[in-house]
Amino acid sequence: MTLIVLAHHGDDDGAGELIYNQICAATGLSRSKVSMGLATLAAERIIIRKMNGRSTYRLRGYQRNRGWGKLPARGLPRRGVSARGLS
Fold first, then answer.
1. The pLDDT of residue 70
2. What does the domain layout of the chain look like in residue ranges?
3. Distance CA 34, CA 1 (A)
């Protein structure tokens, strides 16, 4: 779930900046689970963490216009979080 949020908020190069509170709000996960998820994604070399300071990341091999995925859309709005506008 954490990877989906990072990918959704990354720029055209797969880089982005999100704080834990934003990831927790989007996923419904606790801070500790988000931390473990980010550590796992970094250990598996799926993301690069802290490339420009805290709360920054880059997805390795990210190509915005290549491939696609389909997810159920009801989950995020039910939690009171818009799909794009995390604040």
1. 67
2. 2-74
3. 9
| Helix then strand then coil, % of the chain, to nearest 5 | 40, 10, 50
- The CATH number of 2-74 is 1.10.10.10
Q: 23-81 pLDDT, tens per residue?
A: 999 999 999 999 999 999 999 999 998 877 778 999 998 877 777 666 665 555 545 55
Per-residue exposure over 61-84, b if at least 16 CB sit within 10 Å of its own CB, e if not: ebeeeeeeeeeeeeebeeeebeee
